[in-house]
Here is the input.
Amino acid sequence: MSDAIAAMNAQMTDSVTQVNTQVIGDAPAMAMGNLLLSTSHALSTGSHNVTAAQQYGQTTMHAATVQGVNSLISVGSSAIGRTGEEIIESN
Here is the structure.
């Protein structure tokens, strides 16, 4: 019976050794995979932030352009109104 137990102990030892070897062998690949995943996530988040900032900048630029055009148009109508007022007062 002791020969059977010794053979079984040897098989258990071999099995545990193989599992440990596999875990140790897989660790660098898993670490590199996690690093690449984290890096790609950070880069994609950065790209999204840049795109959003560009869109907000374009919106701000359009709003400033509209305000400038409105200012130019209101100055013209103000000058026309003042001129009309002077004409009416002179008569």
